[in-house]
Design a protein that fits this description.
182 residues, alpha/beta, Rossmann fold, 7-stranded mixed sheet, 27% strand
């Protein structure tokens, strides 16, 4: 695992046999790194809207005999993850794409076990733009993220405002939230 992926897995308390969801998995960059961390006794749900991306993940998982990876085609208002099934959820560069944030957060909350963690990595942006502007520019103000997630029932655990991004030099933030244990 890369140092960034290790930092993410550690912050989300992901270990061998954990059950994790990669929401907005895309081509599975984090899905496969998480699968290595949870091992054959864990599970990684690769969730995305695009069946084409999920099909690619299924092919690669089959080629690499990674039976711990399961794909789920979610919808714009529901990740369709099994209820009370996951120890951690990771959303990388996708939260800003949620058209129905409250509904998606409700689905994520339902899927998380008590004490489960949600990690969000996204590109920061200035406050005051319309939601469609954020979606088009592919970024989200950290204040908006924190408000939307805490409104969904999770509490902020940690926040790194200068988390490494892709090789193009863009910087991202990394927020970790936790579901109450009760």
């Amino acid at each position: 695992m890369s140092p960034g992926a290790l930092k993410v897995a550690d912050a989300l308390s992901i270990r061998a046999a954990s059950v994790v969801a990669d929401v907005g998995s895309g081509d599975g960059y984090f899905t496969f790194r998480l699968a290595a961390r949870v091992g054959p006794n864990g599970k990684v749900y690769a969730e995305d809207l695009a069946n084409k991306e999920l099909a690619g993940i299924r092919v690669r998982a089959g080629q690499e005999n990674l039976t711990q990876i399961q794909t789920i085609q979610g919808s714009e208002d529901d990740p369709k993850l099994p209820e009370l099934s996951v120890d951690a959820v990771l959303i990388v560069d996708a939260f800003h794409e949620f058209a129905r944030t409250d509904a998606m957060m409700a689905g994520i909350f339902r899927a998380m076990r008590p004490g489960g963690r949600l990690g969000v990595i996204d590109r920061s942006a200035p406050l005051g733009l319309k939601w469609t502007d954020y979606m088009e520019r592919h970024f989200l103000p950290q204040e908006s993220l924190i408000d939307q997630v805490t409104r969904g029932g999770l509490r902020l655990v940690s926040f790194d405002s200068d988390f490494a991004g892709p090789p193009d030099g863009a910087r991202y933030y990394f927020a970790v939230f936790e579901k109450p244990r009760q």
